[in-house]
């Protein structure tokens, strides 16, 4: 049984960790190594929140070959492809991943580029793991002739205070480290789990196919005392898509790992990664950048007399607190969508008609307006049935956005499934530029010419990010 450090003050624990004596400012070395090569990092994002640590790159939502070519047509080393697989069942998730790899391999041969795939998942361990990693490895072998040496497990996400220490994954709550298995996220109706100790988590999620003893671990001692060379030597030994846990409590840790990974790639190894958002920033060599300012968003395309739109589909406790704070402390207009009515075929259309009518009037009057689903969580038996409920609710929010005749000054979407469906179905986005972050962990997209509303700030707010005042802070900034 692993020794946990849960419910202890975070600062005390972080201060007790070994000093990072091996680290220097190596982010620039990572950038140089990437820039000298034609190597591309392709991030398959299972919901739209994964761009929450990067900037000045593009995300595409269509993985047909022509769109992949457009995404890879410049000298940027990182491209995101929004798959939204977290909102689908296992069969559809497998189909999407296979199709993307097939098209990627074809385009890569045509453009003569090399690439690695990062499967960007949730920092609270939810999602189709190990399914997506297994499918990617299998399809890379079939379509590209690439044998995957191992896959890195890197759920650390520092912007939201998630750390991996001693092979256990923690998040900070009220200043204490708490194993993610002791949080509401582990009780997810579709992707729940019982342990945050990653070797046991991997065994549990694989149905026992991978035993915890087969998992490789790169510890904080390896990283901070052994440095790039120690991590590199460990990576060279990986074979047969072996799971490799990366412990990390800072970006310094990830930078050491990232440089070692790039060296191992040069030596002929090939890795997949199952990560949260922080590792992409490190491996992609992104510099720190200030948060996007209000004036950066007030372009000619967003000025006008219409109100801004805040759409809330996430039902986590954190989200509920955030929208309550917003409504308590601003004059934002509010419209509640009755979820039981949306799920009742006899009442769905009339409920949508009511909401759309109210929203048109408020936005046209220049009033910032929040639409939120009623807060009661409806759960039924079976993963597929719960996914169907989520998709039905998200589909109602999409219908609202599609109906709008006025262009909101800005759009904020709260929740992973919600923000993905609003982006792809509601707004029709095919390619968007990532401007940066509104606050820590909250990315800002800028819609392209093909979108329903062109040149509009689209702020993707994850359901599990931020404090009680976070939505309030962004809306005030935009106002």
UniProtKB/TrEMBL annotation:
InterPro entries: 4-carb_acid_sugar_kinase_N, 4-carb_acid_sugar_kinase_N_sf, NBD_C, NBD_C_sf. GO terms for molecular function: ATP binding; kinase activity. Residues 309-470 form the Four-carbon acid sugar kinase nucleotide binding domain. It holds the Pfam family NBD_C. The keyword Zinc does not apply. Transmembrane segments: none annotated. The keyword Transferase applies. Gene3D superfamilies: Four-carbon acid sugar kinase, nucleotide binding domain, Putative sugar-binding, N-terminal domain. Residues 41-283 form the Four-carbon acid sugar kinase N-terminal domain. It comes from the Bacteria. Keywords: ATP-binding, Carbohydrate metabolism, Kinase, Nucleotide-binding, Transferase. Belongs to the four-carbon acid sugar kinase family. This is Uncharacterized protein YgbK (DUF1537 family). It comes from Mesobacillus foraminis. The lineage of its organism: Bacteria, Bacillati, Bacillota, Bacilli, Bacillales.
């Amino acid at each position: 049984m692993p020794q946990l450090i849960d419910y202890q003050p975070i600062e005390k624990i972080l201060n007790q960790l070994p000093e990072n004596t091996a680290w220097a400012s190596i982010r620039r070395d990572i950038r140089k190594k990437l820039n000298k090569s034609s190597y591309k990092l392709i991030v398959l994002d299972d919901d739209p929140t994964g761009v929450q640590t990067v900037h000045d790159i593009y995300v595409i939502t269509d993985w047909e070959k022509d769109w992949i070519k457009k995404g890879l047509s410049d000298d940027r080393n990182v491209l995101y492809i929004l798959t939204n697989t977290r909102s689908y069942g296992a069969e559809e998730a497998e189909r999407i991943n296979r199709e993307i790899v097939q098209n990627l391999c074809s385009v890569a041969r045509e453009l003569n580029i090399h690439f690695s795939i990062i499967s960007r998942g949730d920092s609270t361990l939810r999602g189709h793991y190990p399914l997506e990693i297994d499918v990617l490895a299998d399809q890379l072998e079939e379509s590209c002739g690439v044998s995957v040496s191992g896959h890195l497990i890197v759920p650390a996400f520092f912007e939201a205070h998630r750390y991996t220490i001693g092979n256990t994954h923690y998040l900070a709550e009220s200043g204490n480290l708490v194993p993610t298995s002791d949080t509401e996220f582990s009780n997810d109706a579709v992707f729940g789990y019982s342990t945050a100790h990653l070797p046991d988590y991997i065994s549990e999620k694989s149905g026992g196919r991978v035993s915890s003893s087969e998992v490789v671990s790169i510890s904080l001692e390896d990283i901070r005392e052994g440095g790039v060379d120690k991590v590199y030597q460990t990576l060279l030994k990986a074979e047969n898509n072996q799971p490799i846990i990366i412990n990390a409590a800072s970006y310094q840790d990830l930078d050491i790992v990232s440089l070692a990974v790039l060296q191992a790639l040069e030596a002929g190894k090939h890795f997949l990664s199952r990560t949260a958002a922080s590792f992409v920033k490190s491996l992609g060599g992104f510099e720190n950048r200030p948060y996007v300012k209000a004036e950066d968003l007030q372009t000619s395309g967003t000025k006008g007399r219409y109100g801004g739109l805040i759409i809330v589909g996430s039902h986590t406790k954190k989200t509920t607190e955030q929208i309550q704070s917003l409504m308590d402390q601003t004059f934002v207009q509010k419209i509640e969508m009755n979820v039981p009515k949306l799920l009742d075929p006899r009442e769905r259309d009339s409920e949508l008609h009511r909401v759309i009518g109210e929203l048109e009037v408020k936005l046209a009057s220049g009033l910032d307006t929040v639409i939120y689903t009623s807060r009661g969580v409806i759960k039924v038996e079976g993963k597929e049935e719960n996914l169907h409920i989520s998709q039905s609710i998200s589909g109602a929010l999409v219908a609202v956005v599609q109906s709008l005749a006025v262009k909101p000054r800005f759009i904020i979407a709260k929740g992973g499934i919600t923000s993905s469906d609003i982006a792809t179905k509601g707004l029709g986005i095919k390619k968007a530029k990532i401007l940066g972050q509104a606050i820590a962990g909250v990315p800002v997209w800028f819609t392209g010419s093909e979108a329903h509303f062109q040149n509009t700030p689209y702020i993707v707010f994850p359901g599990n990010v931020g404090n009680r005042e976070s939505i309030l802070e962004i809306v005030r900034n935009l106002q």
